[in-house]
Predict the structure.
Amino acid sequence: MPYASSPNTETSGSIPEVPSDLKLISQHETGRLCSSACFDTLSGDLLLGCGDGIKILKKGSCEVREETHDNRAEVAVHKGDVFIAEHKNDKVINVMSYNRENREDKELFSFSMKSGYSAHVSASDEYVACVDSDTKPWTLKLYNRREKTVQTLQLPRLTALIFNIHFLRDGSLLATVADDAEKCYLDKYRISSTTSPDGEAAASLVWSCQLQKACGIAVSADERVIYVSELNAKRNFVLASDG
């Protein structure tokens, strides 16, 4: 698998197609577009971020039920903690932690975003990150869970678009991005604990792999492999976790 060991190394290859024999087990209607999905590691339930709120597919059930919120929302889970990025009339994004037991939200931060694109969200031990598509190029809003502060993170590559993000268990960040030349990449970044003089968060590129098309991200539970799904196509790609 071609990858870059430093930000100055260009990648010339692309993700190879992996033959597979997938069998459809079940299919469930969500009503509105589903833009994010993740397993609740404590209950085993599948949480879905949809155009009309958060849905839940109970473990062992065949029914998708409405869980919370009426607005379009993205969802992420980290060690049983649920985080939601909710679109308020496509003008403001509220990023919240959500307690499923008492169905209560705790707002972490909010920001204006009028572009209408999905505000993908992901979380680690230290951060909650959310895509801000109002900026050019697109940036991340980065909430420090320990210090309870919010910073802007510009990814090192000249990234025009950020399709999706996902934190790995070691705290590094995966992002599927497109540059100004409309080339698409899967990048792995390491977020610095220090900040730049202008107060923005800093990140360094660990490796980069060129994609054939724009892709989303899904990562296995044990994180030994990375699954990359191609947008608007029925193909998945499998990468080793080291790129």
